[in-house]
Design goal:
The complex is a heterotetramer, with 2 copies of chain A and 2 copies of chain C. Chain A has 11 helices and 5 strands; from the N terminus they run H-H-E-H-H-H-E-H-E-H-E-H-E-H-H-H. By secondary structure, chain A is an alpha/beta fold. Chain A has a single domain, classed as Rossmann fold, CATH 3.40.50.970. Helix content of chain C is 36%, strand content 20%. In chain C, the strands form 3 sheets. Chain C has a 7-stranded mixed beta sheet, sandwiched between helices. A 5-stranded mixed beta sheet of chain C has the order 9-11-10-13-14, with helices on both faces. In chain C, strands 1-8 form a two-stranded antiparallel sheet. The chains are: A alpha/beta, C alpha/beta. Chains in contact: A-B, A-C, A-D, B-C, B-D, C-D. The complex binds thiamine diphosphate (TPP) (2 copies) and magnesium ion (2 copies).
Amino acid sequence: MELSSELKKEMYWMMLLSRRLDERAWVLHRQGKIAFHISGIGHEAAQVGAAFALKKGFDWVTPYYRDLALMLCLGLTPREFVLSLMGKSGDPSSGARQMPSHFSLRRVNAVSHSAPVATQTVHAAGIGLAIKMKKEDKVVLTTIGEGSTSQGEWYEGVNWAAVHQLPVIFLVQNNQYAISVPPELQMAVKSSADKACGLGLPGITVDGTDVFEVFDIVSSAVERARTGGGPTLIEARMYRITPHSSDDDDRTYRSREEVEENKKKDPIILIRQKLLDTLVVSEKELQEMDSNAKEIVTEAVKFGEEAPYPSFEEASYPVFVEDVRNG
Amino acid sequence: MELSSELKKEMYWMMLLSRRLDERAWVLHRQGKIAFHISGIGHEAAQVGAAFALKKGFDWVTPYYRDLALMLCLGLTPREFVLSLMGKSGDPSSGARQMPSHFSLRRVNAVSHSAPVATQTVHAAGIGLAIKMKKEDKVVLTTIGEGSTSQGEWYEGVNWAAVHQLPVIFLVQNNQYAISVPPELQMAVKSSADKACGLGLPGITVDGTDVFEVFDIVSSAVERARTGGGPTLIEARMYRITPHSSDDDDRTYRSREEVEENKKKDPIILIRQKLLDTLVVSEKELQEMDSNAKEIVTEAVKFGEEAPYPSFEEASYPVFVEDVRNG
Amino acid sequence: MVEKTLVDAIRDAMDEEMQRDENVFIVGEDVGQRGGVFRATVGLFDKYGSNRVIDSPLAELSIVGVGIGAALYGLKPVCEIQFADFIFPAFNQIISEATKMVYRSNGEWTVPMVIRAPYGGGIGGGLYHSQSIEAYFTHAPGLKVVVPSTPYDAKGLLKAAIRDPNPVLFLEPKKGYRLIKGEVPEDDYCVPIGPANISQQGTDISLFAYGMMHYYALQSAQKLASEGISVEVIDLRTLIPIDKETILNSVKKTGKALIVHEDNLTGGYGGEIAAIIAEHAFTDLDAPVRRLAGPDVPAVPFSHPMQDWYMINEEKITNAARDLANY
Amino acid sequence: MVEKTLVDAIRDAMDEEMQRDENVFIVGEDVGQRGGVFRATVGLFDKYGSNRVIDSPLAELSIVGVGIGAALYGLKPVCEIQFADFIFPAFNQIISEATKMVYRSNGEWTVPMVIRAPYGGGIGGGLYHSQSIEAYFTHAPGLKVVVPSTPYDAKGLLKAAIRDPNPVLFLEPKKGYRLIKGEVPEDDYCVPIGPANISQQGTDISLFAYGMMHYYALQSAQKLASEGISVEVIDLRTLIPIDKETILNSVKKTGKALIVHEDNLTGGYGGEIAAIIAEHAFTDLDAPVRRLAGPDVPAVPFSHPMQDWYMINEEKITNAARDLANY
Ligand SMILES: Cc1ncc(C[n+]2csc(CCOP(=O)(O)OP(=O)(O)O)c2C)c(N)n1
Ligand SMILES: Cc1ncc(C[n+]2csc(CCOP(=O)(O)OP(=O)(O)O)c2C)c(N)n1
Ligand SMILES: [Mg+2]
Ligand SMILES: [Mg+2]
C-alpha cells in the first residue's frame, strides 16, 4: 500500500521526537539529573511502524520498556515521559512507583507492565480472549525483546492465542542482544518468528529499521486479527545502538567497531535519506522538524524539573482497589 | 534394521508383563486393596520401543507416571511396583512417600519425578548438559504426555537442549487426552512433534502402537544424540484406553463407542498378531508367556500384601541429606 | 434453607454469579464437560457454553496470566487450579502481576479475579495432592486470601470474592468437599471478606483455625466442653486481610491462644498470628502463644501411617488445647 | 587478611570453589563475558571457559531446572538469578522439585545446588529491583536459606553452601555489595550453615537482623550505647535452619526482642522468629516481642521520597529499639 506523504512525515516526526527525547534522557543521566534510563534508540522504526498500524485508543497494547516511540505514538506526551524519568508527581504510568520506561497509559489502552519480562505476553492473550468473548473488533499488540522469548511464559501466551485464534499481534524486537547475550544462546532458530511454526500461527521476519515495511506487515496482521483470522508473530530486526541501560557497560561484551558499523543502519538516518530521495521532505523541512523536536524536548525537561516529587505518604497506597485515590 | 526374533519376543514379553500388572492394579483397586492407580494401558508399545533403544543402566531417564512398561524394561520389578501401589515399606521410588507410579529407580538412572507435569523435561536438559560437560557418551530419555507440553517448562527444557545440542530424547506420548481435554485445546499444531521446528531440533511423529517402529525411530535419535548430533523430539501416538486414573470417570467426556473403536488398535493385540503372522511365536508360546506373566503378577501381589507398612516415624525424614537413613 | 455439601455450595455461588453478571467466566483444566476433577463446575459448561467455561491448555501460568489479561479488560475470571499443589507455575503471574497491578499503576489498572484452588491433606494424595499453600500467598500485599470452612460461608464468601475488585485467592479444603455439610440459603447473599467468625464462644482458651482444621477445632471444643474446658473457636476464614480486632479481643478474654493449621509449622501463617498476639496482647497473655501445625517435612506423605503422622486431627487439637488450658 | 567488599568476597568464594572442585559451575544471565550485572562473576568466564560459566537463555525456570538436572547427575551448579525479584518464574522448580527431592526419593536423589540472588532495596530500583524474597523460601522444608551481612561471612558461607549436599538459597544484600567492606582471609575457610552470630553482646534488648538490616543494626547499637542502652545484636545469617538456641538464649538474657527486616511485615520471616520467642521464651519476656519491617505495600517504590518512606534505616531501628528498651 502506498502511503501518503503526510503519513510518511508523521511517522518520521514520531521517530525523530522519540530519538531526541531519548538522547536527552542520556544527557540528563550524565548530568546526574536522573538515576536511570533504558533506551529505545535504534528501535524507533519498528515501534512507529507498528503503532501506526493500530487504531490508537481503540486497540490495546501491552508494551515493554523499550517502547518509548510506540508510547509517544499512542499519546504519551514528552512531559509525561520526563516526569517518569525523574520520578515526579504526575507520572501517568505509575505515579512514580515504577522505574522509568515501565509504561502504562490507561486512557489509550496501554497496559501497565512490570520488569519481569514476558509476563505481558500472557496478558495480551487474555485481553485477546476478552475481545473475542465480547465479539468486538479490537486487536492487541504486544511487544517484547528477542531474549525474553526464551521464557516459558512467552510460549504459553502465544500458544493460547494460536489455540483460540485470538486477535493478538506478537511483535518481537530483535536487537541482537539480551543485555550481553546474543540470540544464538537464546534460541536454536534463526529468527524468533521461526518459533511460530511450532506454535501454529503465521510468523514473519521484517527489517525493523524500515518503518514503512514494518507498517505494511503489521497492518496486514492487524487486518487479519480484526477480521477473525487469528494471531501473527512478527520479528522486527534491528541493532541496540546504546548499552542495555544506563547501568550497563557494553564494552565488556562487544567491540566499538561492531557498534559503529551498526550505527550505519540507524533507522533515523535511513528514513531521512529515503524521504529526501523521494522528495517527501526537503532539507529545510527536516531542519525545522529537528528544531521543533528540540524545543518540545527542552520544554518537557523544564516542566519535569519544576514538577514536585510525590509526597512520602503516597507510597502507602493503593494496595487494594479500595485505597485508590484520584488527585 | 531387522530385529532378531529373540529381541522381538523380549519386547513382547515386557509389553505383556506390564499389561498384566497394570490390569491387576485395576482389579486391586476395585477390590479396595489399593487407593489409586494410574494406568499405562495402550502405551506399552511406545514405552518398550523407547526403552529398548537405550543402554539400560547406562543412559538416563526422567520418566512420567504412565511409564510402567518403560520402568519394567529398565529393571523395576513387579514386586517393587506392587509395594508402591500399596504404599508399603520397600517401595524403591519414594519409600511410599509418593503416590504410586511416581517412579524413581536410582540403580538404573531413572530419576524421581513429581506430580507437577513437565518439571522432568527441564531436568532432562540439565542431565544432558552434565553429560556434555563431562564429555560422556550417555543419553537422556524424557517422557511426557501431549497435554503437558503446554507448560512453559516444557518449552524451556527443549529449548536448552536445542541451543546447547544436548543428548536428550524428548518422547511425547500423545494419547489424545489430558484427563478430559483433547489436543486441539492444547495446541494449534497437529502433532507435538511439530513444535520441534519452532525450537530448532528434529521432530518426528511415530505410530506409538507399533513397538518396532518406535524402537527404530528412537534408536536413530539415540544414536544421533550419543554421537554429538543433539536432541530429537518424538511424538508417539496412541489412545488412552482406560480412564485417566482410578479417580476419573471418563464417561463424562467421551463415548463408549469411541473407546471401543480405539481398543482395536490396542498395541498388545497388534503385536501378538504380527508375531504370529511372521512366525516369530506360536499360539502355544503366547499362552505360555501369558501364564508366566500371570504367575509373576500374582506372586508380586502376594509379596506386596505381606509386606509391612512403613512406620509412622519414617515420615519424619529425610528432609535434608543429613537425615538420610538407609535400611 | 437446604443442606448442601461444601462443593455444592461453591458450585451454586459460581452458577449464581455467572447468571447475574455476564462478565464472569470460568477457566481451568477439565472444568468443561468433565465439570472439574472435583466436580465443582458440573453443569456449568452445558448451561453457559464453551465461551464462558473454558478448558484451558494444561498450564497454570497462563490460566492465571490469561485471567489477568481478561480482568484488565474488565471481565471477571474465576480461574481454577486443579490442585493447590499445582499453583506454583503461576506464582510469577500471581505475585509479580496480579497483586502489584493496582499499586504499580497507581490505581489505573485493576485485576478483579478469583483463583480457586482445592488444598489440604488427609485424602491419600501424597506429596503433590495434599499441600497447604496459604503461607506463600499471605505475604503478598494486594492479594486477598479466603478459606471457607462451612457451606454457608463457602457460597457467601465466593460470591463476595467474585464481586471483589481485587484478586482473591480462594482456597477450598478439599477433604471437606463432600464431608462438610450445612444449611445454605437458596437466595443471593454475600459473606464479607475481612471479618473472622467466632464460631463458638468460650472463656478458657482461644482456638484459631481455618478450613478443615476449623472443622476439627469445633469437634475438639465440644469434647473439651465435656471436660469442663471452655474453648472459644475462631474461624479465621479471611486470612488476608487479617481481622486483628476479633483475634485480639478473644485473647483479651481468654488469655490463651492456640493457632492450628495443617500447613508446615515453620514460616506458616500461624507465625503471623502468633506474632500479632505476642506484640499486641502481651499484657493479656496468661500462657505462651502456641501453634499446632504440620511438621516441617516437605509435604504430606502417601502411605497411610505416614499420612496419619503428618495430619492434624481432632485428637491432636484436643490434646494441644487441653495442655494449654492447663498451663 | 585484606579488606574486601561484599561482592569481591562472593566472587572469591566462587573462584576458589571452582578451582577446588571441577564439578562446580556457574549458570545464569550475563554471567559470562559480562561478568554479571553486579560483576559478581567477573573474570571467571576467562578463567574457566564457557563450559563452566554459562550464559543461560533468559529464563529463570530453566536456570534452576537445568541446575537441578545437573545436580542430580552429580555436578554442583551455582545458579545466579539476576535480581531476586526475578526468581518467581523458577518458583515451581525450587519449591516442587529442589526442596522435595531428598524426601520424595527417600534419600536416593539429592540436589546439591546453590541459587544466588541479589536482593533488597534502597538502591532506586523500584518495585521489581528491590524486593526481599526470603519469606517465600523459609517455608519450604528441604531448602536452606542463607543471608550474609559481612564479607567474611559471605565468603565462608558461600563456600559452605557450595559444599552443602542440599539446595541452598543464598541471598545477597545488593546495596551492600560495594558499601560493606571487611577483612577477608585469603585462604580456604567455611562458615558453617546453621549458627547465628552474636555480632555484639548486650544486656538490655536483643536485636535480630540480617543482610543490610544487620549492618544498620550495628550502627544503631553503637548509637544507643552512647545513650546508655546496651543492645545485643544478632546476625541471623542462616534463616533456615533457624538457630533457636542462640535466639532464645539472648532473649533469656535481655528479656526484650526486636526483629528487623526490610521485607514486608505481614507474613514475613520476622513472624516466625517472633512466634518462636513468644512460645519458648514466654516467661523470659519483659516486653512485647516487636517487629520492625517494611510496610505492607507490594514492594519498594521508585521515587526517592517514596523509597525513603518504605526503607528501614539506622534511624528507624534506633527509634524502635530505644522505644522497646524503655518499655
Ligand atoms: C524475568 C526477568 N529476568 C531477568 C530480567 C533482567 N533483564 C532485564 S532486560 C533483560 C534483557 C532483555 O533482553 P531482550 O528480551 O532481548 O530485550 P532487549 O532489552 O534487548 O530489548 C534482562 C535479562 C528481567 N527483567 N526479568
Ligand atoms: C502442573 C500440573 N497441573 C495439573 C496436573 C493434574 N494433572 C495430572 S495428569 C493431567 C493430564 C495430563 O495429560 P497429558 O500430559 O496428556 O498426559 P496423559 O495423562 O494423557 O498421559 C493433569 C491435568 C498436574 N499433575 N500438574
Ligand atoms: Mg534484545
Ligand atoms: Mg495425554
